[in-house]
Design goal:
Blueprint (H helix, E strand, L loop, with lengths): L2 H19 L6 H8 L3 H7 L3 H24 L6 H16 L5 H9 L5 H23 L5 H22 L1 H19 L1
Length: 184
């Protein structure tokens, strides 16, 4: 296995384990064993568990934004609904047991570290994303609309664990349509 494929394998295994068991519930030894790599291979790529967590969160965020952007490119007439649908599909495929970024904020809160900064930055970027989208579409009260859409997606993320991705998607899209009707 090449150096880059070993790193990608480590990231994939770490993300799966962190998502399934939490950041505190997984040790480096478990990641090394499941990735089937030598201890030095892990440390050559990530000098600490925190650096591995940071890399996992950055990679996951990059995948999320690529996913959202790809979805939005389909149709520029209703980008808000497409963003909601994309987020809900992401939940179904990648995040049906909760939000890894919220878990990172909870686990690393107050530690004044890059992990919490990455996770909080992801949430701030979502808010900014909707505000810029509202501005591009000439929506009045772009800040209010961005906050409402962000709250809606965060609520969908939480409710997916309770009612499932299908129902959460159904309700979330319906609410988004109502929000947008009032903003026209």
């Amino acid at each position: 296995m090449s150096r880059s494929s070993k790193k990608e394998n480590l990231l994939a295994v770490a993300e799966r384990l962190f998502y399934e068991y939490g950041f505190r519930g997984v040790g480096l030894k478990q990641i090394i064993n499941e990735a089937n790599v030598a201890t030095m291979t892990l440390y050559n790529h990530f000098p600490s568990k925190d650096k591995l967590v940071e890399a996992v969160l950055k990679q996951r965020e990059e995948r999320y934004w690529s996913y959202l952007d790809l979805y939005i490119e389909k149709d520029t007439d209703s980008p808000f609904i497409l963003a909601v649908e994309a987020h809900c599909h992401w939940l179904k495929e990648e995040s049906h047991r909760g939000d890894m970024f919220l878990r990172a904020i909870e686990d690393y809160a107050g530690a004044d570290n890059e992990i919490e900064n990455i996770a909080r930055g992801h949430k701030a970027k979502l808010l900014s994303y909707f505000q810029k989208l509202a501005q591009r579409k000439g929506k009045e009260n772009d800040v209010d609309l961005a906050i409402q859409m962000t709250l809606l997606l965060e609520g969908a993320t939480s409710m997916t664990t309770l009612i499932g991705a299908e129902k959460a998607t159904e309700y979330t899209v319906a609410i988004a349509r109502k929000i947008l009707q009032h903003k026209l």
